[in-house]
Amino acid sequence: MKMTFRWYGESDSIPLSYIRQIPNMSGVVTAVYRVPVGEVWPREDIARLKELCDQNGLEMEVIESVPVHEDIKLGRPTRDRYIANYAENLRRLGEVGVKCVCYNFMPVFDWLRTNLKLEAPDGSNSLCYCHEELMKLDPKHLSLPGWDESYTQDELQGLLAAYANVSHEQLFDNLVYFLKGIMPACQEAKIDMAIHPDDPPWDMFGLPRIISSEADYDRMFAAVPDPHNGMTFCTGSLGAGRFNDLTAMAAKYAKAGRISFAHIRQIRYEGEKDFAESGHLTSSGSLDIYGIVQALVKNGFVGYVRPDHGRNIWGEDGKPGYGLYDRALGAAYLNGLFEAAEKELHT
Length: 347
Description:
- The protein is of the alpha/beta class and about 350 residues long.
- Helix content is about 40%, strand content about 15%.
- The protein is built from 12 helices and 12 strands.
- β2 (about 25-30), α2 (about 45-55) and β3 form a beta-alpha-beta unit.
């Protein structure tokens, strides 16, 4: 296992000099953010990120993410150009030692929450999701926390209209087409693709979701069995669906060698579909974080891990879910769980 930390590049409020002080931190998970989705990343931008990481004694072996252009998801005639660009990005990342790329295939929104600063009794705040509140929104006049600055209303309405007649089958077929198109580049660059599950794992606003469950992953691996086709095992996203048995899934896919990357975070169920994000400890929420870690270790997981969304604590007012303090605490907790699970395995 390699412990990593999400870092949003030079504009991130958290410097690499702080991240390197977190115990057992091997590297950062980052990306080139200034290039429009679908275009090729300049080598000098990639080299700059690598240089900064090297200067701070941190690896840059995981990229999150190289975004997938909506034309690829929609299966438009332009998709082949964007797939060729994606493959070129993979080859360029392989040149500097990147080994894993986390990505998603969610239409329009790659995560949804209804509140980014839910205050807990202890004064911390975190992201949360209320399904009823979301369903009350008018799709023709959407205002969503964290997304209002990403799309204009015209852009958003155009995308929703484009997906109006895209079925789950069509979206899945487009995913398979994309994966088959980039697998040669993955083989050349020695990069594993790690698809992130839908967040949360159900349809909304008429948008299909196709990577939400064990059955979805099985179907994808059967369609594209190449060993470079892997997954990001995100406990929070998969865990939001109570139909998912996370411990069993962790064991199954670790044993199969399909988990390239693990996002480990805790959520607390507030209703059938409602949840709030909480501290990483098993006792802080509804997911058995220790049981999941045990299942990963017992079944040979050797990939990358990062403490996923944390709370804002101790007066920190950073990017929601991505403050320093609670994620550092989460990393320390996860280090302890992995050490215990590994010692249990060998006693």
